[in-house]
Specification:
The protein contains 15 helices and 34 strands. With 681 residues, the chain is α/β, with parallel strands linked by helices. The strands form seven sheets. The chain has an eight-stranded parallel β-barrel, surrounded by six helices. Helix 13 (491-506) links the parallel strand 21 (473-481) and strand 22 (511-516). The structure holds alpha-L-arabinofuranose (AHR).
């Protein structure tokens, strides 16, 4: 142990209650701790934007269908290129193409087998199986008719195909179908036990032909109980973060591999039965992790995104296509971009979306659709992203056409432009230059980088030669620390995310939004990692990175407080750690509503350090009144520890209490630890 630490520890343990005298003693021995953190409570810094910390959703890693979206059946409308993907069929099953839903015309005809002991049946595999919980209710629904008139009976079984029990059924129900008209039928199934890999069978009547379409199974208990709702545990993990901003629906899927397969929000609203299927580029992007059954049903669409934003308390930030397909996949090929003359459709998409979110249902057709879908009140949209990871002139030219039209129609909306996929290359600098010229309100920056990069980037936003006082503000829209060769969610990388965020926080005048990415991942369906939240068919795991984000989001504060760190023998500085090295990082905020000073300290060293935190700038009486301190610590020293649904709590925050005396708090911070000190005012 270093001499100063030893002195500090001796003083701490020998003096027991008389902390005041320890403090005085420390002061007279050049503070006798590895780091002295001084927080000036008098000088309010920049306000922390309510949007500062948030989430970014993209349908990657089965984030929508098979993830957040509560639907448990895959290919419910038989619209996949192989119409029976996700289904086993037996008996007399015929694919038909003149169904009741114009944009999803397929359905299947279940005809009698012609023999009492032969059956016509279709069986859905769900997404890596269907996860059901014993004793809970599941809402089965389908659209059906009896084409020859009269009535028929369908039997619906939830089954465990591999059981050693006599009966494969976990639960079942029946539905009476009547008449030649298409109608929606629903029934509740209550499985008798929990099972992650169930299948759902629909058995046909043995005497009558029945047509079936849009076959669906949802838990009754979805997040906030919406019928077309979200999986409750997964959405709850979002609510528990308390995000300030919610960016959706991507990412690269906004761009599409080609323009035809870009994300088109207008296809995602209105009755779910009539939302057309789209491919998902993450099905084929990585050939080493190939998922040919990964499509977008759009059951989770823009209405649901806005509603979820509202329910988790985040500002919505939709991102729309700028008239260009993905440049990674197409370079600057002319065929992958809309001509400048043809951009009206993209301008309309932006303006109509703002009307869908905010307009008056009495005067606007898109606002009326919102009201018809169950939300007459506006969603209060304030931000709109135009383009994701686009770069250079083709992008700048198109944004220069679209943005002024959007501004003309809706000057109240803040426009978010992009600086491309890399946070330090030529595209990035040219992107920023163009965004300044085009007067974007915010610029989206992306950096998936390793620990060495983060160690060197700890002052990124303090560079006020590049990030000027005026001009667009920063949206760190996609970022995460990936360790070289270790791309899974190991705790060791999360500690650098926590340290990097002190730089975001200290520069809250510049950075107005930051969102880790990607958000979700299914353990059996991932293409990209690390990710913030993992799940299997039954359980969810919050990663160490999740807890880092949550500690910031729950303790964002209202204003920055100027903070310096003195490393023994060194000068006080906002960040005295030499570029590229480990160290002690800190930032502080005040929460005026809660009456708290919150000091965030991160030790990235591989051993424990002693700290002293001094609150200055308060009147003597106020300082003397400070006493109670809530401490939350996240220890990431188990470097490879990864929270997964099978073992969800290897790393998690721990709460404790301490005290502060005369404005001075002494503590030890363990190796690789994020500690948050909340001082009650
Ligand atoms: O988050 C995964 C991908 O990373 C996003 O789709 C894209 O914007 C970025 O390249």
């Amino acid at each position: 142990m270093k001499l100063k630490s030893l002195l500090f520890a001796l003083a701490l343990f020998a003096c027991g209650n008389c902390q005041l005298s320890i403090v005085n003693c420390q002061l007279s021995t050049a503070f006798a701790a590895d780091a002295l953190i001084t927080v000036n409570a008098k000088k309010l810094g920049a306000p922390i934007q309510p949007t500062m910390y948030g989430i970014f959703f993209e349908d990657i890693n089965y984030a929508a269908d098979g993830g957040l979206y509560g639907e448990l059946l895959k290919n419910r409308s038989f619209e996949f290129p192989n119409p029976y993907t996700g289904w086993d069929i037996s008996g007399k099953v015929t694919l038909m193409n003149d169904g009741p839903f114009e944009r999803n015309p397929h359905y299947v005809r279940l005809a009698p087998s012609g023999h009492r002991d032969k059956h016509t049946m279709i069986e859905n595999h769900g997404f890596f199986g269907i996860g059901v919980k014993g004793g809970e209710e599941y809402r089965f629904s389908l659209w059906a008719r009896v084409p020859d008139g009269g009535s028929s009976k369908l039997w619906i079984d939830l089954v465990d195909n591999a059981t050693m029990e006599e009966d494969q059924k976990l639960g079942n129900t029946g539905v009476e179908i009547s008449g030649k008209e298409w109608k929606k039928y629903t029934a509740i199934i209550k499985p008798r036990k929990t099972f992650a890999k169930a299948h759902l069978r629909v058995w046909a009547d043995s005497k009558v032909t029945t047509d079936v379409e849009h076959i669906s199974l949802f838990p009754v208990k979805t997040y906030k109980d919406h019928e077309n709702g979200m999986r409750a545990d997964v959405a709850q993990a979002l609510e528990d973060l308390h995000p300030g901003i919610f960016r959706f629906p991507g990412g690269c899927i906004v761009e599409g591999t080609d323009l035809a397969t870009r994300y088109q929000w207008k296809n995602t609203v209105g009755p779910v039965e009539n939302r057309p299927l789209n491919e998902n580029r993450w099905h084929y992007t990585f050939t080493q992790r190939y998922f040919p059954d990964y499509f977008q049903s759009y059951g989770l669409g823009f209405f649901e995104y806005f509603q979820l934003s509202e329910e988790i308390g985040a500002e919505p930030l939709p991102v729309l296509n700028v008239g260009m397909a993905c440049q990674f996949q197409n370079g600057d090929d002319a065929h992958a971009a809309c001509t400048k003359e043809g951009l009206q459709e993209f301008i309309d998409d932006c303006i109509d979306l703002i009307d869908f979110a905010n307009g008056d249902p009495a005067t606007n057709q898109w606002a009326k659709l919102r009201a018809d879908m169950g939300h007459p009140a506006p969603f209060n949209l304030k931000f709109l992203g135009i383009g994701n990871e686009q770069w250079e002139q083709p992008y700048f030219d198109r944004l220069a056409i679209i943005a002024p039209e959007v501004r003309k129609a809706h000057p109240e909306i803040k426009i978010v432009g992009t600086s491309g996929p890399n946070a330090e290359d030529g595209h990035f600098f040219n992107g920023w230059k163009a965004m300044r010229e085009l007067k974007a309100d915010l610029v989206d920056e992306h950096y998936y980088r390793n620990i060495d990069w983060f160690k060197k980037a700890m002052n990124r936003y303090s560079d006020r030669k590049f990030y000027t006082k005026d001009g667009p503000r920063v949206f760190a829209g996609e970022w995460a620390c990936h360790d070289s060769g270790k791309k899974y969610n190991h705790a060791g990388a999360s500690i650098y995310e926590a340290a990097f965020m002190t730089n975001i926080e200290r520069n809250a005048d510049l950075v107005h939004m930051a969102t880790y990415a990607p958000l979700f991942s299914h353990v059996e369906g991932w293409q990209w990692r690390p990710d913030l939240i993992w799940y299997d068919n039954l359980a969810t795991a919050r990663t160490a990175s999740y807890y880092v984000q949550q500690m910031y989001m729950l303790n964002a504060g209202t204003h920055v407080l100027p903070t310096t760190i003195s490393i023994a023998g060194g000068q006080p500085a906002a960040n005295p750690v030499p570029e590229g090295e480990d160290g002690i990082f800190a930032s502080a905020v005040i929460d005026k509503q809660r009456g708290e000073i919150i000091v965030k300290v991160i030790n990235t060293f591989a051993d424990a350090r002693s700290l002293r935190i001094d609150i200055t700038g308060l009147a003597k009486k106020q300082l003397a009144a400070l006493s109670q301190v809530e401490v939350i610590t996240l220890n990431c020293s188990d470097y490879d520890a990864e929270n997964m649904p099978s073992k969800p709590e290897r790393v998690k925050p721990v709460a404790s209490q301490t005290t502060i005396t005369s404005g001075s708090l002494v503590a030890n911070i363990s190796a690789k630890t994020f500690a948050l000190y909340k001082v009650k005012l």
